[in-house]
Amino acid sequence: LDFLYFLLKPTQAHRPDIMSRILEANKGTPGHITNTYRHQSVHSRCSGAVNWICMLSFPPGVDHTLVQGDVALSKRRNAMKCWSEHCKWGKSYNGLVEVPYTVSEYYYDSEKASIKTAMEMFHRRTCVRFVPRRGQSDYLSIESDLGCWSTIGRDGGQQVVSLSVYGCLDRGTVQHELLHALGFHHEHTRSDRDQYVRINWENIPAVNAFDFHKMDTNNLNTPYDYSSVMHYGRTTFASTLGADTITPIPDSFVPIGQREDMSDIDILRINKLYECSKYRNHQTQNNPLPEMY
């Protein structure tokens, strides 16, 4: 089974945009996997990559509705927007935003290290600190469930961030899901997006139309960011292979959907949303990441 796992993991030679990577991971897990060696069983009632307004079924009593490919709808809020203070993670007395988390023992040490590496950018350039849980009631539970997904913002209690070992552990994908957990939406759903991209509705299946609707977003007086790690790729959810669902305007050749790392504007937004004034204009190099295991 270990050998099969390594065969299924994506290779470095195939480097799709961030949402292609996430959607491939989300659809690529068979409908029912039981890995007796790594002690996990997951079920899916999704019909594939085309239908991502779907239900994921986990152990009894735990289920989530996914929209936009990787956003789990909150069971505690009746809307996706995350403007209010209760949706943000709180600041500590030292001015840092401490986000408690746990990491499943399902991961190998090398996989835990990949998650830790992805967190380091938050620690170097923002006031957000992912800290090991010490009994806090609200925390992120990082697990290898079915695919890559997260809720938007602080949701209360145990809040699952799914980072499947089958394709969700590259740095950009981990950062993408953690940004959702901090309160950020996909870039193409910004309220002002029509000034910067054209949505090609004719290339989008009706079942995926919601994934391209604009949201009532707090844009924090920051520019639209084609380079955001939160941006969909050019062909995400295309009904025809290779067709554009999103086209940048006025320059249609601008790259979108990079998956390497958070952009400078991604980082700026974290610092503005969480009022990390110390980190607005410089990078802190000597701020080590707390031990996670």
Automatic annotation (TrEMBL):
**Source domain of life:** Eukaryota
Query: Where does the Peptidase M12A domain start and stop, copy by copy?
Result: 78-277
Q: What GO biological process terms are annotated to this protein in UniProt?
A: proteolysis
Active-site annotation: 177
What does the UniProt entry say about where the protein is found?
A: Zymogen granule
Recite the UniProt cofactor note for this protein.
Binds 1 zinc ion per subunit.
Q: What does the record give under GO molecular function?
A: metalloendopeptidase activity; zinc ion binding
Cofactor(s) for this protein?
Zn(2+)
Q: What class of enzyme is it?
A: hydrolase
Specify the protein name. Answer: Metalloendopeptidase
What is the organism of origin for this protein? Scophthalmus maximus
> What would be the name of the gene that encodes this protein?
LOC118285175
